[in-house]
């Protein structure tokens, strides 16, 4: 696709997305509008399916609706609440440490800056960008595996890692799409442009797509 095609591609995906279920972290952000809960649910979502992330987030928020409450919990209580998310023991320890640092060093407020967020153990660029974009509504581009894969298949970027894709998108993606691109491409990647054997024969943006790197499709 050419750089100019991005507008039509985003419009088509936005229309199609009405049929798709939003990612678990997006649902949390829409319902709660709370950066702390976006941060927690994003950490829970790493290497975990959405159908597990949503209920685990709810169970933890019932025990710990804010930074102060989470900082007071024991590791066992957090582990029990979030099981069976991936790496639940490690995540429980990280969440408690994050909450205690936020309480003790940040007055209980989650930072709204990517670099500040990256100072916390367990917070990578994906999580930091989601807190900034979904938690605070500030400009940022969250690049996860779906965004990275699809932007390369479409030929919009030519990159080898999500971090590289984030840099490339920051340089060329029109700002109006920064916050929304993660949601759209995660849903598109889960439902249509899947990692293995994407559904190219029925793809609504196929006329723009050179299918870079796609060996097998449906
Ligand atoms: Fe993905 Fe295939 Fe559509 Fe390209 S044509 S965006 S590879 S599903």
Structural commentary:
The protein is elongated, with a radius of gyration of 18 Å. The protein contains twelve helices and no strands. α3 (about 35-45) runs antiparallel to α9 (about 125-135) and α6 (about 75-80) packs across α7 (about 90-105). The protein has helices at about 5-15, 25-30, 35-45, 50-65, 65-70, 75-80, 90-105, 115, 125-135, 145-155, 160-170, 180-190. The model has no long low-confidence stretch (mean pLDDT about 95). The relative contact order is 0.14. Helices cover about 55% and strands about 0% of the residues. It has two domains: about 5-20 and about 140-210, Endonuclease Iii, domain 2, CATH 1.10.1670; about 35-135, Hypothetical protein, domain 2 (Endonuclease III, domain 1). By secondary structure, it is mostly helical. Bound molecules: iron/sulfur cluster. Iron/sulfur cluster binds near residues 198, 199, 200 and 214. Iron/sulfur cluster binds near residues 153, 154, 199, 203 and 209.
């Amino acid at each position: 696709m050419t750089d100019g095609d991005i507008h039509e591609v985003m419009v088509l995906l936005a229309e199609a997305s009405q049929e798709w279920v939003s990612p678990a972290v997006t649902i949390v952000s829409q319902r709660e509008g709370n950066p702390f809960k976006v941060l927690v649910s994003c950490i829970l979502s790493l290497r975990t399916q959405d159908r597990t992330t949503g209920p685990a987030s709810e169970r933890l928020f019932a025990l710990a609706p804010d930074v102060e409450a989470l900082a007071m919990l024991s590791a066992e209580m957090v582990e029990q609440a979030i099981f069976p998310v991936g790496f639940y023991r490690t995540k429980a320890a990280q969440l408690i440490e994050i909450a205690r640092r936020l309480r003790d060093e940040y007055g209980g407020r989650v930072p709204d800056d990517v670099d500040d967020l990256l100072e916390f153990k367990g917070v990578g660029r994906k999580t930091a960008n989601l807190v900034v974009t979904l938690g605070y509504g500030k400009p940022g581009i969250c690049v996860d595996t779906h965004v990275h894969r699809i932007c390369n298949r479409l030929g919009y970027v030519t990159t080898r890692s999500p971090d590289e894709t984030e840099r490339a998108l920051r340089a060329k993606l029109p700002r109006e799409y920064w916050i929304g691109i993660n949601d759209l491409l995660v849903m598109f990647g889960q439902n249509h442009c899947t990692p293995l054997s994407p559904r190219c024969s029925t793809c609504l943006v196929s006329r723009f797509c050179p299918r870079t790197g796609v060996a097998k499709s449906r």
